[in-house]
Design goal:
With 76 residues, this protein is of the alpha+beta class. The protein folds into two domains: 37 residues, no CATH class; 33 residues, no CATH class. 57% of the residues lie in helices and 13% in strands. The chain has a two-stranded antiparallel sheet.
Length: 76
């Protein structure tokens, strides 16, 4: 944006400031969000002992073998 202001394009056409800013922001978000999701792992693990009591009971009822570690999707 600074380079466009220095060239005088946005000074001559002040109505273009908002569409240009929103377009640049949209492009950044379009590419930054997928890249950030790709850089960081989506799956994480936690010890069974650290789970909430309700989740522990639910897992104990559903499975015969109690896991030492459970995995979950962190999501966005």
């Amino acid at each position: 944006m600074n380079s466009l202001e220095k060239k005088g394009l946005l000074r001559r056409h002040p109505w273009m400031v908002l569409p240009t800013s929103l377009g640049a922001l949209g492009l950044c978000l379009t590419f930054a969000t997928p890249l950030a999701c790709a850089f960081f792992k989506q799956k994480a693990s936690i010890s069974f002992d650290q789970l909430e009591p309700e989740l522990k009971e639910s897992i104990k009822k559903q499975s015969k073998k109690i896991p030492t570690e459970v995995f979950f999707n962190k999501g966005l």
